[in-house]
Design goal:
single chain; 44% strand; disordered N terminus
Length: 171
Amino acid sequence: AYDVGGYALHVIRAGKGSVLDVTAERPILDADLAEDGSVCYTVKGQLSWGHCFRIWDASGAEVGMIKQVVLTWLPRFDIYVGGRCVGTIRKELTLFKPKFTLDMNGWTIDGDWFEWDYSIRSASGEIVAVISKELLHWSDVYAIDAPNPSDALPALLVALAIDAEKCSRGD
């Protein structure tokens, strides 16, 4: 994974999602402690109209959520931290390269053609987080590198929204 010298998370999605496993818990590992299996967050889907994922920290406190806004022309997800809506991510209509618009903290997001790697940047252009899909795993594994530890959770929520949108298309 690309290292920007900060906090790193490994997001593990246990295989392709289906209606039967939408509520399965998925561990989020701290990359620095991954060898001993240290889980820093747990993600669990919730049955709802559209995708909804809740995130708990290691102590069991709910710290975040993404919720798909239904009945929209293109996919849109609201991002919650601490029970408060802090932003929105929307898929844009494009012909070839997928594009998302992020309305949160003045951040922008740019991805590659394969939808495997994304960079989140601040309004001043500095890297907030880099999201990279790791290949050669039995399930989908994403690495999230964030220079500032306080940006790790919002970056995780963005990564989950992008992954949920891809799952909706069967990717």
